[in-house]
Known about the structure:
The structure holds 2 protein chains of 2 kinds.
Chain A: E1 7-14, E2 17-22, E3 27-31, H1 32-37, E4 65-71, E5 75-80, E6 88-90, H2 91-96
Antiparallel strand pairs in A: 1-2, 2-3, 4-5, 5-6
Chain B: H1 13-20, E1 24-25, E2 30-31, E3 38-44, E4 47-54, H2 62-74, E5 81-88, E6 108-112, H3 120-133, E7 138-142, H4 150-153, E8 161-162, E9 167-168, E10 170-172, E11 175-179, H5 194-207, E12 215-219, H6 226-234, E13 239-244, H7 248-263, E14 268-273, E15 278-279, E16 286-287, H8 294-301, E17 306-309, H9 314-322, H10 326-329, H11 334-355, E18 365-367
Parallel strand pairs in B: 4-5, 6-12, 6-13, 7-11, 7-12, 13-14, 14-17
Antiparallel strand pairs in B: 1-2, 3-4, 8-9, 10-11, 15-16
Helix pairs in contact in B: 3-11, 5-6
Amino acid sequence: MAIDVIPVELMQVGPLELGIRWSDGHQSKYAVRNIRLNCHCANCVDEWTREVRVKSEHIPADIKPRKIESLGRYAFSITWSDGHDTGIFTFEQLRALCECEACKPR
Amino acid sequence: MFFKQKDTNEVNEASVLKALSNVQDPDLRKDIVTLGFIKNLKIKGGDVSFNVELTTPACPVKDQLKEECLTRVKAIPGVTTVNIEMTSNVRSTSTGGNRISLPSVRNVIAVASGKGGVGKSTVTINLVAALAKTGARVGLLDADIYGPSIPLMLGTKERPTQNETRIFPVVKNGIKIMSMGFLVPENQPVIWRGPMVHGALTQFLTQVEWGELDYLLIDMPPGTGDAQLTISQNAPLSGAIIVTTPQEVSLLDARKGLMMFQSVNVPILGVIENMAGFYVPGTDSIVDIFGKGGGARIAQEMKVPFLGSVPIDPQVTVCGDKGTPIVDAHPDSKVAFVFRTLAGSVAAQLSMLQAQASGNFKPMALQWQ
C-alpha cells in the first residue's frame, strides 16, 4: 500500500529519547533502545526462520543513535553508538512502535 | 464646462492581470496569474507584451493557453496589439536525498515494469526524445546493467570521457546518456552479483556529471531486486512510470513493480500501456494482439493515473534497432504523436505533484547529541 503518513520532523527530546512529528499532526515519542531492539536487519532477525537474534542482554542500556538519516522516501537509516548501521526503519514500522500515551496501550 | 474625463480605456497592469486571471491551467486547476506564470509584462499605450512561464516546455495545453491569453487581453478596451512569448521554468520535485543528491537535476523519473520485454526502453527513449524536442534539458540513465539496450537504441557507441573524479555522459541529439553498454564491449556479458550492480548504479548516480537537467529518466531493469532497491533507496526520485502490455501475465508483474514503488513511498506518475493493438496497414481496423485495456484496468485498480496506450507499429522496432527513436525518425506518424502526448502527460503529472505537499518530500537527518 502507498504510505499516507510520513515524518515531517525528527528531534532529539532527551539523552535517550527520540521524537517524530508526523504529517497527520501526531507526535511520537520513543526510548531509542526500544527502536534498536526492533531492528529487522538480517543480522538481527534471521531472514529465513525469522528467529530474533538481537537479544536485549546484548544491547547496552545506554545505546543511542549517532546519526539518523532518511533512506529514500520511506525509511530512516540509523547508525548506533555500538557501530550497528545495517537497520532500515520504515515509517510504517516507526509509527507502529510509537510509545506516546495514546498509542502505548494497544 | 469642459474637464478632461478620465480615460476609461486606459490599459494598465491591473486590467491585463484581471483579464488573464480568467485563464486557468487545466492541470494545476488555478488561474495563471495566481500561479505566477505571467512575467515581464510591458504596456505601452495599446501595445501589451508579456511572457507566460509554464512549469514545463512539454506542456500539453501550451497552444490552447496562449490562444486563451490572446483572446482575453485583446478583449480589453484600448488594447491594439498583444505579444505573448511562451517560456518555461521546470520546477523541481527531486527529493535531494541524504546519500545521493542531484541538486542540478530537477526531476528524476524511474521507468519500470516488473516484467521484461514490455518495451520499457522503447518507451523511455521516445519519452526522452519527445521531451528533448520541446526544449527541455534531459538525461537518460540506463539502469539495466545486465542488458543495457539504450546505446543501440539511441545509436551511439561513444565512450564517456572522464577526469579523475567525474564521468561525463555521452550526448546524442541533446540527450545526456549513461549506460553500462558504453563501458563493456557489446558481445561481452556482465556476470555480476547484486553488490556489484549496486556499486555500478551508485557510481552512475554520484560520479556522472549530469549538469543542469529538467528531467532525468532512469530506464530500470525488470524485476524488484537489487537495482530497484538501490535506485529507490539512493536516487532522489520524483516518481515512477510503470510500463505494461495489455495481457494479464504482464499486468501480474506490473502490479508488483507498482506496489514496490508504493511500498518505498515513490509517487506513481502513471501507467503506460505498450503494444496496445496493431493498426492493420492501410485500414483503420485494430487487432488486439496482446489483449485490450489491461493498462487502464491496472491503473484504476491501483488508483494511479493512466497515461495512455501506445499501439504496435513495426516502425517503432525498426527505428529502435537503427538507433533513432520514432519520434525523431517519423515525427508525423501516429505513434510519434502518441509518444509526444505521453511526454506531455508525464511532465504535467510532475507539475501537479510539485504543486502538492506530497510532491515536496524533504529528506531529514539528525545528529545525536
